[in-house]
User: Fold these one by one.
Assistant:
Number 1:
Amino acid sequence: MNDLSADVAVVGLGPAGRAVAHRCAVAGLDVVAVDPHPARRWTPTYSAWADELPSWLPEKAVASIARKPAVWTDRHRVIDRTYCVLDTPALQSALILDSVRVLAGTAVDVTGSRVTTADGTVVDARHVVDARGTRDSRDLAQQTAYGIVVERQRAEPILEGSDAWFMDWRTDNGALPGEAPSFLYAVALDDDRILLEETCLVGRPALELAILRTRLHNRLARRNLETTGHEDVERVRFSVEPPPRARADTGRRGPLLFGSRSNLMHPATGYSVAASLAAADHVVEGFRGGSRSSRSRPVHIWTVQKLRNLGLRTALSLEPDMVPQFFSSFFSLPVELQRSYLSGHDDAVGTMTAMLKMFPTLPASARLAIARTIVRTPVRG
Ligand SMILES: Cc1cc2nc3c(=O)[nH]c(=O)nc-3n(C[C@H](O)[C@H](O)[C@H](O)COP(=O)(O)OP(=O)(O)OC[C@H]3O[C@@H](n4cnc5c(N)ncnc54)[C@H](O)[C@@H]3O)c2cc1C
């Protein structure tokens, strides 16, 4: 058995864990990080709103920028907010771990002050960060998507003059009335390539990838884009909720939950990467100050989480044909309120205002579905 001690132990080296390990090391803290495959190269396409990214992130971590991304809900709308696709390899390399002691191992027990790995290694630390991600479970609400990468020249007509489709809810994907809806997400990966992805925002269970693949091909064929069958493919499936054990109070001092395992994952949109990058320095501040303030749950963070969980339950309960109308109302909000709802995790007033402003603009059937969701929501839970 190996015994190690450190200021900070980070469990999990996905984007969240690697960001917090990196920023702790930059701040001069002694860090041990544990992951079964610490050298695994990340492959997903990660995107974010540009204003969410921390200033310390080098520009090279951004692969492409869409200054006026568009949505199609009931009609074409431009979102006045810059959206960007990250350069995944550059992001990973930017989160340098040179002065972090990295262990290849699987944590089997994680407390607030100790990490034990499967091979019996024990790491004692003043602070433990649990960034093990969520769990791939059909019992949890999940997001799924199926995408292909097409040369810009061929894909450009699909963008119809926009620089990205954040969501295109038009129904030319062959989905039958009453079936769970999906939307087209289309972003530039770089100057030469566009990712075209049919996405199920959230479902329990989410749409299967085979269905999304068929819908994507239907949609593209109807828009006169012939695929070759040789395009690179991106398959997406991840849970937008933390695993139940992470939610439970085990009665002992727990680790700081971070990344998609924590409330940094937006349960109604599936975004967490930018929030994790932005929150890394708050964690460092808390650790350097010797306090555990970073893990306290002030009432506004708690409130935002509850409101977002309500947003998730609403998304899960809406009738399929109401979904585009729901997003039509959402994208009619001023962009500041859209930001409050989509980004950060502590703007309780903004999140509440966005939801209250949206409510009266929704069709009666959608208001009824939301009201039912609220009535069924336990006061705590
Ligand atoms: C294809 C795809 C595209 C996505 N696109 C976006 C996007 O555009 N924007 C966005 O914000 N989000 C996106 N997401 C969702 C989400 O943000 C990502 O899943 C992101 O990777 C979450 O980061 P994380 O570090 O919290 O968790 P993970 O990336 O899941 O990392 C968890 C790490 O913990 C390690 N680990 C697990 N168990 C243990 C253990 N017992 N001991 C030690 N280590 C362990 C794993 O090996 C892994 O390295 C996408 C997800 C996918 C799959």
Number 2:
Amino acid sequence: MDEATGQRMFFPLSIDRKAYQLDRGPFDELLFRNAAKFGAETHEEEKVLEVDCRADGVDIVSDRDRYRCRYLIDATGRAALMGKKHKSIDRIENLGKFAVYTHYRNIRAGEEADELFRSGSIHVPVVDIGWLWVIPLSGRRLSVGLVVQKQRPKDCEVEDLLCRYLEASPMLQRLLAGAEQDAPVRVEADFSYSNRSRYGLRHACCGDAAGFLDPVFSSGVFLAFTSAARIADRVHQALSEGREADPDLHAADDQAYLLGFNTMRLFVERFYQSNIVHNLFFEADRNPELKGQIARLLAGDLWVEDNALQRSLLAGRQMTG
Ligand SMILES: Cc1cc2nc3c(=O)[nH]c(=O)nc-3n(C[C@H](O)[C@H](O)[C@H](O)COP(=O)(O)OP(=O)(O)OC[C@H]3O[C@@H](n4cnc5c(N)ncnc54)[C@H](O)[C@@H]3O)c2cc1C
């Protein structure tokens, strides 16, 4: 939604293209406990400090112990353990610069709020310095955030910026009336990057450790899951065949990863070109085919041949509404 013009665009996903809203804390906990249930040896509250991937194995030093293992999958998120070790992180400059966000609880009943929680839809109001997110969470809580892409106003501390933009939005004023802030205001800086060195001798990086994109299209978790699944399958097979020391183990999968990552990267870049936001999003109503293609990208349906929008993004062609 464009807060200035009031224009809005809605992208419903079809039955076979789904997206889910997840509360990351409980969801990650579930995944972690499930891995243990299926036999993984799990360690909590332990930080990896150093790793050394060698031809005959991997040495790991944590803040508690030392380990030797056959393979390392770096899933350290934006801490990007291997990317920092190899100095292989390339920042992507033209996307969002930082995010400032918090949660609210006890969102009052009302037509607008009830519809938001019923539909589970994400709202993305476009503002002059970037965009806001409004994400309904379980228990009538809302996650709200501001991603800043342009120079931020000098007369305002980063932490106060969110408040300023929430107050300027009539929709958010209505939704948040009487609600209580449920978490501190957090700031995430050093936004989008790609890791040039995503795999090598006895190691591979998945999720944000491989690359991170401005989250306007919520691409982070599905890219994390798809990259993790590919790497896990490949490593599992290589371990059972004793081929895990092959430094090119992930070469083919990496191409698939790049296809997904680059598609979303180009899509986000287009989002920040204001004429494209207008043409592509707000006037897309005129073109149901294009709307369907956008919905497929938003649902993470990236490894297909028949999405004309994706093809034109990758070919660097101009997109029009
Ligand atoms: C402001 C913001 C908003 C976002 N909104 C969305 C959204 O709406 N939808 C979406 O899909 N994605 C969103 N994302 C992106 C999403 O959060 C990430 O893409 C996703 O969490 C990546 O998963 P991951 O497992 O790679 O990393 P993470 O979820 O960050 O997990 C990494 C884990 O590694 C641990 N770790 C780090 N270093 C070490 C170490 N040295 N030793 C041991 N453990 C370590 C961390 O503690 C953490 O538990 C957002 C990101 C940001 C910053």
